[in-house]
Each structure stands twice: as C-alpha cells, then as structure tokens.
Amino acid sequence: MPTPTRSRDLSVFVNAALRKPGLVGAVSPSSARLAEQLSVVVPRSGRPTVVELGAGSGAVSRVVGERLPTGGRHLAVEIDPTLAAHLRAAHPGLTVVCGDAARLRALLGEERVGSADAVVGGLPWSLFAVEAQRRMLGEVAGALAPGGGFSTFAYRHAAHLAGARRFRRLLDEYFDEVVTTRTVWRNVPPALVYVCRRPRVPGPAAG
Ligand SMILES: C[S@@+](CC[C@H](N)C(=O)[O-])C[C@H]1O[C@@H](n2cnc3c(N)ncnc32)[C@H](O)[C@@H]1O
Questions:
Q1: Residue 83 lies in domain
Q2: Has residue 140 been placed in a domain?
Q3: Does some domain include residue 24?
Q4: Residue 163's pLDDT is what?
Q5: Ligand 1 centroid to 82 CA: how many Å?
Q6: In this structure, what are the phi and psi dihedrals at residue 35, rounded to the nearest 5 degrees?
Q7: Cβ(136)–Cβ(122) under 8 Å?
Q8: How many CB atoms are closer than 10 A to CB 107?
Q9: 102-121 pLDDT, tens digit each
C-alpha cells in the first residue's frame, strides 16, 4: 500500500505527464530499484555535490538523498514549474532549480556550484533532437568534476530504436567509459541504466 506521500508523488507525476507528455516522456515515476541503480554514481563519503536532472516528482531524489553523506549537497534541475514546486514542498533538503538542463552550467553558477561530483539524469532523452542531446551531454560532461560520474536510463523496449541507439553512441563521444547495467525489471516499463565516467571533450559531430 503506497504511503500518502507516495500517492501524492504519483498523482503529481501523472498530472504532469498528462499535461505535458512531450516533456515528461514517462507513464509513471521511476521505481525504487531503478533509483538505486541510478544512484551508484553518488559518492558515499566526503561532502559531494550531486545534481539531478529532470527530478520529476522526486522518486529518484528520495533515494539519492538517502545515499548522500552528511554535508553533501543535492540540487535538482526540473523544467516544469508545478513539479519544481512539488519537489520543494516534499523534499526540504533539496535545492530545486526550475530551469532547463540545457543551461546546466549557468544554473549551477547561479547556485554558486563550480562542479558536480555526480550527475543523475532522469531526462526523456528520446524526445530530444540530436542537437539538444549534444548540448545537454556537453553541459553534463563540462559540469562534472574530474572523477565524477553520470548515470541515466533508457526504457528497454525502446533501446533498439534508432533514436535510442544514436543517444547510446553519443554517450561514447562524451564519456571514456559507459557501462550498461542489466535490465531493471522492477520498473514500469523495464529500463537499462547507463553509468558513465571520465567525461571528455568530443571530437567533430558524428551525426
Ligand atoms: C522521465 S521523467 C523522470 C522523472 C523522475 N526523474 C523519475 O525518474 O521518476 C522526465 C523529467 O524530466 C523533466 N524535463 C524534461 N525536459 C527537461 C529539461 N530540458 N530540463 C530539465 N528537466 C526536464 C520533465 O519535466 C520530467 O519531470
């Protein structure tokens, strides 16, 4: 039985998905199991700065927050104002920035964050044109501290489609190491997680 908080998260998410399907790109929030897989890039010690992109109703934020060591900083970038307001109310420890992930470094600069130790991506990549994907991946790679990690996910049933395969190739342009996890079956729909390390400056556009 979902708790009242989870029920509220779910209704806020579903409302946003119905209002803006082209922005949310999912039918339900990520499961705890998927959130755990995404959180592997969050350092367990020190005072890391972790940035979440497309935090939605906070399903991944909760798990990232539980893993984050005391003294760590957790920022969420969410473009939808209603979801951003919900995140602020439901997650008092989270710094919520209502803005576009394509402006990540400028947004972090406004929060006086120089670099991120981890970026956890919940963006609907398959809905973006290739130029937008490149722009956002460039922002992520440029915002990461040396040694930082980036994680994001793709839905398994769509991973063989041309747009998804192109996005997977782009990850190799922006990161030296990209590891794909096993399918996370306990998610609706089942998903794969990409864990990316060692950001690099890409060469000329490959299309
Ligand atoms: C697939 S949902 C994921 C939500 C949440 N991370 C989860 O896993 O349950 C995608 C989220 O990305 C947000 N989003 C879409 N485009 C964005 C952008 N350019 N910048 C920031 N957030 C964006 C949407 O509003 C939505 O909340």
A1: 4-17+29-199
A2: yes
A3: no
A4: 86
A5: 12
A6: -60, -40
A7: no
A8: 20
A9: 999 999 999 999 999 999 99
Distance 24 CA to ligand 1 centre (A): 5
| Any domain includes 107 | yes
Whether 154 maps to a domain, the answer reads: yes
> Of all protein residues, whose CA lies closest to atom 14 belonging to ligand 1?
54
pLDDT in tens, 83-106: 999 999 999 999 999 999 999 999
Half-sphere exposure of 179 (CA within 13 A, CB side): 11
| 87 CB within 6 A, ligand 1 | no
Q: For residue 205, is pLDDT > 90?
A: no
User: 165-192: buried (b, 16+ CB within 10 Å) or exposed (e) per residue?
Assistant: eebbebbebbbeebeebeebeebeeebb
Split into its structural domains, the chain has a count of: 1
Look at strands 49-53 and 116-121 and give their pairing.
Answer: parallel
CATH of the domain at 93: 3.40.50.150
